[in-house]
Specification:
- The structure is a single chain.
- By secondary structure, this protein is an alpha/beta fold.
- A hairpin with a 5-residue loop joins strand 15 (436-438) and strand 16 (444-446).
- It is an enzyme of class 5 (isomerase).
- This is DNA 3'-5' helicase.
């Protein structure tokens, strides 16, 4: 017979059950999937004689009602021995309460049709203006702009514009619609010039790919679509430098640089860690564009807590200058360094675009902003910038005005979320552990007054005794989401590191659940799996985060790399808080978090 369906109201109740009762409920559902019907009991005195209860666990029962949209075929009816239609699970409650509830159900009061492929069992509740969008396919939802935001995305401005807001306020969708609008205007104004005139740039490859796919939906005309280039900020810098030099840059990560510079510090007898030297180079010298020792000695080291006496600055300067020069000879670049070189080249050759739209702006380095400033001529509608300082996962501190980008009087602060439920926000916001963040216009940015228009189930936090138990619980939970009608590509599962991610993929594939990398093809019907960093900027209906354990978050390697440097340690903890906060708020409808042993202090402190 067919599997037990899930009623539209079921999952909200399910998230409130204890882990043991949840697992027992899943066992009953698996038995139905396997073709085995557990013993169903009639309910004496029930208003509807078709209502049944099924034993779930000791003193717990599920209430099961007929599925009116799935009448059985002749073979199923013969096998079942009755004319009863297939059933769907309505709720799981303590046995006495379940019996009382079952007796009260009448045919006319049964919930509406069961979950289909639209995943209605999990859809959040929202205001009337979003009702149609919430019930539409998720791919359509991902390009749905709140009606109140059209004025900004379609407006004409005398200069650069900045839009800030917390998770789910629609910043990325606004960037998408702004790029599409500018492309349409450009096509009308320059019909004979069909070059790429609009740049839409963001922080990582996964989000860039997602933006490109959604832009295809917004701009079905190939001629208009071809006017927009979607690229990560790093790929833009590489392209510019390579086009001018004819040589593909070799890149080095911050971790690789920290290891190399640690040896340099030891050789020079400096009492500083390799991480400190890399940060000093990127966050002070490159960020401020310092080229002379006197300027470095005089400068205010904003955001750098550790004091440096003038004699130490001289030592640090000489060490950094010497090693940075050796990197240039070797043809090795850091990402901020490469962006600075791209900015220098564009200052010579001239702008590349008429308009630039920047998503995830809070994580860009000052050298990357200089590159973007040089990539577009200053004037009306030049830069459209969206970001959230509270989602910053880098150490970058930026003053747009100091970089020639004036947004004064053209700033818009979004305080209403419509893409993440209030329940997820209430659980996630304490993770940040701070009340305000430094904005890109030198002002303090707070989440005061921040709220959501959507309501849904509370996040589920599951503690496990072993990694095997954690993976098993994940597999069961993903199966519940799929049974609820959530599309596989609308589900993301992430871990803090690749070791956790590999275990996730193996477990799901072993259960017959197809998976694909978070940065993989968007059209593939498979659960997205990757690291928390790869979730950045993306949006899914359901998100599961594994390994949120004390020994994994923050990672030991990151703590050890700080080498006892209190400033570096503080940055590590704040970056991990922000990363976890960002990962949690990638879910629109449902969030599941699990850990082995002690939970990470980032979620156990409150």
């Amino acid at each position: 017979m067919s599997a037990l369906a899930i009623a539209p109201t079921f999952l909200s109740d399910f998230t409130r059950l204890t882990p043991d009762v949840q697992l027992d409920t899943l066992a009953v559902m698996r038995a139905y999937q396997a073709g085995d019907r557990p013993g169903l009991e009639s309910v004496a005195g029930a208003a509807d004689p078709r209502v049944r209860v099924v034993s779930i666990a000791r003193d717990w029962s599920g209430v099961i009602v007929p599925d009116p949209d799935a009448a059985p075929g002749p073979e199923e009816a013969e096998e079942a021995g009755s004319d009863d239609p297939p059933y769907r699970l309505l709720t799981v409650r303590p046995r006495a309460e379940a019996l009382r509830y079952a007796r009260s159900l009448r045919p006319e009061t049964l919930p509406d049709a069961p979950t289909g492929t639209d995943g209605a069992a999990l859809a959040p509740v929202g205001p009337p203006e979003l009702a149609g969008a919430l019930n539409s396919p998720f791919a359509q939802w991902q390009i749905t702009l709140h009606p109140d935001q059209h004025q900004v995305t379609e407006g004409h401005f005398n200069g650069s514009v900045q839009v800030t807001g917390g998770p789910g306020t629609g910043k990325t969708v606004m960037a998408l619609h702004r790029a599409a609008h500018l492309a349409e205007l450009d096509a009308a104004a320059h019909p004979e010039d069909d070059r790429e005139s609009v740049l839409l740039t963001t922080y990582n490859r996964g989000l860039a790919q997602s933006l490109a796919e959604r832009l295809d939906q917004l701009l079905p005309d190939p001629g208009t679509r071809s006017r927009v280039r979607v690229a990560t900020i790093d790929s833009l810098a590489r392209t510019i430098v390579q086009s001018h030099t004819g040589v593909a840059p070799r890149m080095a990560s911050r971790d690789e640089l920290a290891q190399r510079w640690r040896a340099v510090a030891l050789a020079d007898g400096l009492p500083f860690s390799g991480r400190f030297l890399v940060d000093e180079w990127e966050q002070v010298i490159l960020a401020k564009g310092l080229e002379l020792l006197p300027d470095y000695i005089r400068c205010e080291r904003s955001g750098r807590v550790q004091h440096l006496a003038p004699e130490h600055r001289r030592q640090v300067w000489e060490t950094i200058r010497r090693y940075a020069g050796a990197m240039r000879v070797e043809g090795l670049w850091s990402y901020p360094q490469l962006a600075g070189e791209a900015a220098r080249l564009l200052d010579r050759s001239g702008p590349l675009y008429r308009h630039v739209v920047v998503d995830e702006a809070q994580d860009l380095h000052p050298t990357q902003w200089r590159m973007l400033r040089a990539a577009v001529p200053e004037g009306p509608d030049d830069l459209f910038i969206v970001g959230d300082p509270h989602q910053r996962v880098s150490d970058n501190r930026v003053s747009l005005a100091s970089l020639g980008i004036n947004v004064r009087g053209r700033g818009h602060r979004l305080r209403v979320s419509y893409r993440v439920t209030q329940e997820i926000l209430d659980w996630s916001m304490p993770i940040l552990g701070r009340r305000s963040a430094l904005g890109m216009d030198d002002d303090a940015d707070t989440l005061a007054g921040y709220r959501s228009l959507l309501r849904g189930p509370a996040p589920v936090v599951r503690g496990c005794a072993s990694r095997a138990e954690e993976l098993t619980a994940l597999g069961e939970w993903v199966r519940v989401w799929l049974e609820a009608g959530v599309g596989a590509s609308e589900i993301a599962v992430a871990g803090r590191n690749h070791w956790v991610v590999r275990g996730i993929a193996k477990e799901l594939e072993a259960r017959g659940v197809a998976t694909t990398p978070l940065e993989g093809a968007g059209a593939l019907s498979a659960v997205r799996v990757g690291t928390m960093h790869q979730l950045k900027g993306q949006e899914f209906r359901c998100v599961a985060l594994l390994g949120v354990s004390e020994h994994l978050l923050p990672p030991r390697a990151a703590l050890e790399a700080a080498e006892g440097d209190q400033v570096a340690l503080e940055h590590v903890y704040q970056q991990e808080r922000t990363l976890l906060f960002v990962a949690c708020t990638r879910a629109r409808d449902a969030l599941y978090v699990s850990h082995v042993g002690q939970p990470s202090q980032l979620i156990s402190e409150w």
